[in-house]
Specification:
- GO terms for molecular function: flavin adenine dinucleotide binding; oxidoreductase activity, acting on CH-OH group of donors.
- Its cofactor is FAD.
- Pfam families: GMC_oxred_C (PF05199), GMC_oxred_N (PF00732).
- There is one protein chain.
- With 580 residues, the chain is an alpha/beta fold.
- It has a domain at 172-212 and 335-454 and 463-530: Glucose Oxidase, domain 3, CATH 3.30.560.
- 24% of the residues lie in helices and 22% in strands.
- The protein is built from 14 helices and 24 strands.
- Helix 1 (29-38) runs parallel beside helix 14 and helix 12 (478-497) packs across helix 13 (513-522).
- It starts with 18 loop residues before the first strand and ends with a helix.
- The structure holds flavin-adenine dinucleotide.
- The site of flavin-adenine dinucleotide has 35 residues, from helix 1, strand 4, strand 10 and helix 8.
Length: 580
């Protein structure tokens, strides 16, 4: 670092105050938003502490999209956790990936900025109903206002995009690989329209959509950290005394007490050094929260902290000798991921991101192009399109049925991601040969019925977790994946008919159910979208294991002074500026 620049205002554990109004646990995608909104200057601003286990690690390389995406980045910002060998996937061991750095997983992800469909948020409204004051909190209109408030798009489109928020997003101005133009044409041929803006609420739910990415005007990754907690803002707030950011520190557990009325109250957190720093002199200490503790430690960290604090499935906690303070069965249950299955082809090297690895001269040209114009392959345009459809709208051969509204399904259950690169999991040894360019279709299950768990292995906050995504534990998940694989192969056929050269490399033996299922069980991967381990809903929601963990205000059932926020936290806060 240049010796005269002011460093990021990180406070070590020993220098923290004893008490804050709010403590935000986990400085990731949601945590950066929470810290920003809560510590915003206003009359009697509350004092906020943000605790993050990872470092700030803000270097030039960490901002270049290609070098900062997980598959190309170093290990300093990524936490890879082993998951249980998967029974339905021939016992294959897999890993879960999350960011462990200020900005969290938004510092290592693919930067795709894709909203849900209005209908999805309307379903939340139906399920969650209204709050105590009779207001609906989660419908599309509420979400639309929040999206518009938080985003800073290239161009304002009334009711769709705004340019006044903090989080930059944009589309690439061109398709960087010829294969993507061919996919658009092939999709149109089979009856899936081109959707130029995936985030427009009026686009059809099924089609081939151009994606948005969170890249700023300097061609840098724009993570939640860059958008909501950049250095200048953190310095201002630190000077004003409204925000302290403590990195390299974990929350070991919550401090809980029983109020006189018999209500469980969370009064603070126990902080300690990370496993890597444990050998040093840092010791654990308690910091109190006058108002609330907000958990935004991600799909593994948040249930872990709740369970270590005695809030979780009672039987599991007892087995580990943890005193149960609140039996909340759904904590750590209902783990879901968008399971993905890949088919791969060899194409011209020029048309593939692999060319950057194979041809140093091309890398050099692209590097210079990036430095001078901020364009080119270093923006990692490996994925610029996604095809959304419902498996029931595909016929036996995987082609869309032309008649509209034959079925009542109005939300996609599969997504096909065309990639100018390999997309299978490198753990299984099923690779597209690297002697020519690589192209693949990653078939993603959008509405999985299989549900897994996150459990503790010990009462030690630094011990590894037992993560079981239970992929395909519900065999009904095979059905949409079969349809999606067939659709991918039909797109391949159309692309070939258009004289785009694609040689089969990693594809199923045949399109019989048996061969497709065998393929699904071997050529698969995580797509890193772990969710629902602290799900929002009602306690008596019998479709889900244990119902839910938080209510529609994100407050933990039975412990209302602790709230859990994933990425959706942005929505509540941007509406209200405060969670009180
Ligand atoms: C490789 C990859 C690519 C992806 N691509 C996309 C994409 O293109 N588009 C998209 O929308 N989604 C993508 N995702 C998913 C998306 O990025 C995540 O779902 C989202 O960022 C999660 O946000 P979060 O705030 O819930 O958790 P995180 O951003 O993971 O934040 C949790 C934070 O809590 C910290 N923490 C955990 N435990 C503790 C503790 N005990 N004490 C203190 N701190 C703690 C962690 O270090 C972390 O920084 C991708 C994910 C990955 C891994």
């Amino acid at each position: 670092m240049w010796p005269f620049t002011t460093p990021y205002p990180e406070l070590p554990l020993a220098h923290l105050s004893d008490e804050y109004d709010y403590i935000v646990v986990g400085g990731g995608t949601a945590g950066c938003v929470l810290a920003n909104r809560l510590s915003a200057p206003r009359e009697a601003s509350p004092r906020v502490l943000l605790v993050e286990r990872g470092p700030v690690a803000d270097t030039w390389l960490s901002r270049v999209p290609l070098f900062s995406s997980d598959f190309a980045s170093d290990e300093t910002r990524t936490l890879r956790r082993p998951m249980r060998p998967q029974a339905a996937l021939e016992g294959r061991p897999m890993q879960a990936y999350t960011g462990a750095v200020l900005g969290g997983t938004s510092r290592i992800n693919q930067m795709l900025y894709t909203r849900g469909l209005p209908e999805e948020y309307e379903r939340w409204k139906e399920t969650l109903g209204k709050d105590d004051d009779g207001r609906a909190e989660w419908g599309w209109e509420q979400m639309r206002r929040c999206f518009l408030k938080s985003e800073k798009a290239d161009v304002e489109v009334e009711g769709v995009h705004s340019t006044t928020g903090l989080w930059r997003n944009r589309t690439h101005t061109e398709f960087y690989f010829k294969g993507f133009n061919e996919v658009v044409a092939a999709a149109k041929d089979v009856g899936l329209p081109y959707i130029p803006d995936v985030n427009s609420p009026t686009h059809p739910p099924f089609g081939c959509a151009r994606l948005h990415v969170t890249i700023d005007e300097h061609a840098h990754r724009h993570s939640a950290y860059d958008a909501f907690l950049p250095k200048d803002l953190a310095l201002q707030r630190a000077r004003a005394g409204t925000l302290h950011v403590c990195t390299g520190t974990i929350v070991e557990k919550l401090v809980t007490e029983m109020s006189e009325s018999g209500q469980l109250v969370v009064t603070g957190v126990v902080l300690g050094p990370t496993a890597e720093r444990k050998e040093g002199r840092a010791r654990s200490r308690v910091v109190r929260a006058k108002r609330e503790v907000l958990l935004s430690a991600g799909p593994f960290g948040s249930p872990q902290i709740l369970m270590l604090s005695g809030i979780g499935p009672a039987e599991h906690l007892k087995e580990l000798g943890i005193t149960v303070v609140q039996d909340v069965a759904a904590v750590g249950s209902n783990l879901q991921d968008h399971f993905g299955v890949s088919v791969g082809f060899n194409i011209s090297m020029w048309d593939s991101l692999l060319s950057l690895e194979k041809w140093p001269w091309r890398f050099f040209i692209e590097f210079v192009r990036y430095l001078i114009w901020g364009t080119g392959l270093l923006l990692v345009p490996v994925l610029q399109l996604a095809i959304f459809t419902h498996s029931k709208l595909l016929n036996e051969r995987g082609l869309p049925i032309k008649t509209e509204k034959v079925f009542s399904e109005d939300l996609p259950d599969i997504e096909v991601m065309p990639m100018a690169y390999e997309s299978s999991d490198s753990a299984i040894g099923q690779y597209i040969p690297r002697t020519a360019g690589q192209f693949s279709f990653l078939n993603v299950l959008l509405a999985p019925l299989s549900r897994g768990t996150v459990r503790l292995t010990s009462a030690d906050p630094r011990a590894p977790l037992d993560i079981d995504p239970a992929y395909l534990s519900n065999p009904a998940d095979l059905v949409p994946l079969r349809a999606s694989l067939k659709l991918s192969l039909r797109l391949r056929d159309r692309m070939r008919e258009r004289d785009y050269e694609m040689r089969d490399a990693t594809v199923p033996k045949s399109e019989s159910d048996e061969d497709l299922d065998a393929w699904i069980r071997t050529c698969n991967r995580t797509t890193y979208h772990y969710t629902s381990t602290c799900r929002m809903g009602s306690l008596d929601d019998s479709e889900w294991d244990g119902g839910a963990v938080v209510d529609s205000r994100l407050r933990v059932y039975g412990a209302p002074t602790v709230a859990v926020a994933e990425r959706c936290a942005e929505m509540i806060l941007s509406e209200e500026q405060n969670i009180d």
